[in-house]
Amino acid sequence: MDRITEGLDKHAEWLNMVERGISDIEDDRTTLTSNQSNMGKTLAALQMKVEDLEARSRRNNLHIVGIAESTSIDNIEIYIKLLLIQLLGHQTFSAIFVVERAHGSKAACPPQGRRIDQ
User: Fold this and answer.
1) Full-model pTM
2) Which of 101, 65, 61 is nearest to 81 (CA)?
3) Which contiguous run of DSSP H or E holds residue 34?
4) What are phi and psi of 88, to 5 degrees?
């Protein structure tokens, strides 16, 4: 009878060890699943950010400072194109030079007598 009890105790100990191992594996799987979900969200956010940065890098933006807000101009695109040609010279620009968009800043005007970059 003692051998049977001893054998059952060994099996119970072995079973407890196996159950602890399974529990540890389940905990690890839960953690990994959570981490994978978080990484998926981070990856999606980073992909959107990269896409935005790539789109922005394709643009050739110029910021021109110093044109008075009070300047009344009917067609700002033509005005900017002529201004650039006048300032930088006609030979600087090729025939395909195009001003696609031009608009005033949405920033508040600086106080009287001060420049934007001060």
Assistant:
1) 0.42
2) 101
3) helix 2-57
4) -105, -10
